[in-house]
Design goal:
The complex is a heterodimer. Chain A is mainly alpha-helical. Chain A is built from four helices and no strands. Helices cover 75% and strands 0% of the residues of chain A. By secondary structure, chain B is mostly helical. The chains are: A mainly alpha, B mainly alpha.
């Protein structure tokens, strides 16, 4: 396992992971601040946290109720 | 002109407030960066997770840098367009439903200024995302695969952005004439898909189609040369964009502001 971890070139992957985390953070903040989301809020939080990139994007695109 | 600046600033503020200014570029960067990374590590990924029997030898040609970037652009053409359309679908229709449009139009603001500010706002986010994402992708491609000349990157991104401008203009048009976010997005994506499909099916007769921009982009990336039909397609695309914008303003005038 350690070997596998050491083999990963962090220089290339670190920015991707950071960006993903930022995306997740934006979606989470937006979801928590929103009074009402399309569908249950706790479900969206789970979706954002669990489904990699697609979860936050999905929330940002269809989860918000813009008024 | 100051009035326009105020309206444009309102668009930008709104995009800051709903984080669009952040997350759309991030998604474009991720889409752009994933492609070179995954084509670089494909053999290892298959090795580790592919579950191939021991001793299988896979001869996989490493794609050239230009090919990787072409794949990036085709990702933008699918997922990028989808995200752009979905995030822009409510641009006018929502403001009309919530009454914001009526509030703006009570003031002596001309209809064309209103639509133009919306259009400029959409263009800003689209082009910024495309440029940032593409440059990030170019950086990763140079790092992992091979360097691609910057002129080609520049030319291809400029040509590609014309196609995205066309897409966004269509979204604005349908958002003005229709109500309901879902239907706007559905119709826009359907129309874009139809244009692309017809263009690729009837390539011979569709040399003028805006969808050929994606083909021209690929050609510039691979060979650095432009097809002779580019000028025609370019002029027609710009003309369609202008006509659609004028139609948007005219139809917006005729519609009731509150639905």
């Amino acid at each position: 396992m350690n070997e596998l971890l050491n083999g990963i070139p962090w220089g290339a992957f670190a920015p991707i992971i950071v960006l993903q985390l930022i995306l997740m953070f934006i979606a989470l903040v937006s979801c928590i601040k929103e009074e009402k989301t399309n569908g249950p809020k706790w479900l969206w939080v789970l979706v954002i946290l669990i489904i990699g990139i697609i979860g936050p994007v999905l929330y940002l695109v269809v989860g918000r109720r813009n008024d | 002109m100051t009035q326009w600046t105020v309206l444009y600033q309102k668009e930008i503020t709104e995009m800051v407030r709903n984080y669009k200014i952040l997350w759309i570029p991030i998604v474009f960067i991720l889409l752009g960066v994933m492609q070179p990374v995954s084509s670089y590590y494909m053999p290892e990924i298959l090795d580790t997770f592919g579950g191939l029997p021991e001793g299988t030898i896979l001869e996989m040609p490493t794609p050239t840098g230009a090919e990787v970037l072409m794949n990036v652009l085709s990702n933008y053409g699918m997922l990028g367009v989808l995200i752009l359309v979905l995030s822009a679908m409510g641009v006018v229709s929502e403001e009309r439903q919530s009454g914001v449009a009526a509030m703006v139009m009570i003031k002596p603001v001309s209809y064309s200024l209103y639509i133009l500010s919306k259009w400029a706002g959409l263009l800003t986010i689209t082009l910024v995302s495309l440029f940032i994402g593409y440059v990030a992708s170019w950086y990763y491609t140079s790092l992992l695969i091979e360097t691609v000349a910057f002129e080609r990157i520049f030319q291809s991104v400029v040509i590609y952005s014309i196609w995205l401008v066309f897409v966004v203009t269509l979204t604005l048009f349908f958002s003005t004439i229709m109500k309901g976010n879902g239907s706007v997005a559905f119709v826009t994506i359907f129309v874009i898909f139809a244009i692309s499909t017809v263009t690729s099916l009837l390539g011979k007769y569709m040399k003028w189609s805006p969808a050929t921009m994606t083909e021209h982009t690929g050609q510039v990336l691979l060979s650095g040369k432009l097809d002779s039909s580019f000028l025609l397609a370019f002029i027609i695309t710009i003309a369609i964009i202008i006509v659609v914008l004028i139609a948007t303003v005219q139809l917006f005038k005729r519609k009731d502001l509150l639905e």
